[in-house]
Amino acid sequence: MPIPTGEGRIDPDRRDIALRDLKKEYEGLDEAVLAIREQVQSWEQDNPDKRTLVLVSGPTAGGKSTFVERMDFSPEDTTVLSLDRYYLEKDELEARDGKANFSLPSALDTERIRSDVQAFLSAKQREKVKVPIFDMRVSERVGEEDIPVTRCLVIEGIYALDQVDAETPFKVYIDVTEDTMLSRKLARDTAERGIPEDVVKERFEQNVRPATREHVTTQREKATIVIHNDSEEKA
After folding, report:
1. Whether the Cβ atoms of residue 40 and residue 170 lie closer than 8 Å to each other
2. pLDDT reading at 186 higher than 60
3. pLDDT tens digits along 189-226
4. How far apart are CA 204 and CA 50, in angstroms?
5. Which fold has domain 12-228?
């Protein structure tokens, strides 16, 4: 059952109009950010008593985090929740599946994601929700922390549109080619995570490419906004 984003559901007629109006495609982050920022501000003005929910999904290294940064949401009024927090631990995946493949949706703790999102959308502003901390370097959950509840909740992750079943006109899918994904992953994972280039390429061919084709790209059908982001250097 979809989660309402405010006190009560969004009026169905208004929601349908919003979804039709926002079902657009953009070339590059710059064009998209300007348009979507204006749309979010307009929606908040028209719906002062409702929570704002923005979902950002798409392939790895597509530019999801960069998009959120460029949207320049007010930190006082916005909580950004990355689904990277919700991976199951490597040992748990290996015990269950025989190997740890973090590119699959089954690598995420879906039950905890939906519980925490419900908590964010149900709580009063300035209350806090406890969320996990996941260390990518060791593939383990290393603790938890409290995050404040604000009017606007931005959820960013490869499978955000699949993991979060909620009513919102802002369902963003950032699209890139597989060549761009690989190029960006090589640059990011070797520099930031210390992973050898040959390991990055092997994991991409064995895990990332198949998962993207089978599971990630299907989310485009759920998106109200699609951004083509091959021209951006930074992911």
Report:
1. yes
2. yes
3. 898 888 899 999 999 999 999 999 999 999 999 999 99
4. 41
5. Rossmann fold (3.40.50)
